[in-house]
Amino acid sequence: MKHTLRFRAYLPDDVESEAWHHIDILRQIRNHAVRDYYNSDYNDRPSDYDQHNKLTAWVDRWPTFAEPSRHAAQQAITQIHSDLETL
User: Fold this and answer.
1) In the Cβ-directed half-sphere of 10, how many Cα atoms lie within 13 Å?
2) Residue 56 is part of which domain span?
3) How many domains does the chain have?
4) What is the number of other CB atoms lying within 10 angstroms of the CB of residue 79?
5) How many helices (H) and strands (E) does the chain have?
6) Is 48 within 8 Å of 80 (Cβ atoms)?
7) What is the pLDDT of residue 86?
8) What is the rounded CA–CA span in Å between residue 73 and residue 26?
């Protein structure tokens, strides 16, 4: 069983705006990775490692994907595959 910790944060408006901006970009990366996964051939679905490698090409194609840290983007992709394993 996984546990999730929740904390309340009171951020200044400019920091809050930047945080929501990064969360939105990570959502776009996650959605793109999900589409990439399900649009692949059933017998040749990409692993999280494969999609981490594709992230470089995605950043070249969509420069906004480079704004959040690469580690956060990889974590968003890894979370997809973690969720798929629990199904």
Assistant:
1) 0
2) 49-87
3) 1
4) 14
5) 3, 0
6) yes
7) 74
8) 6
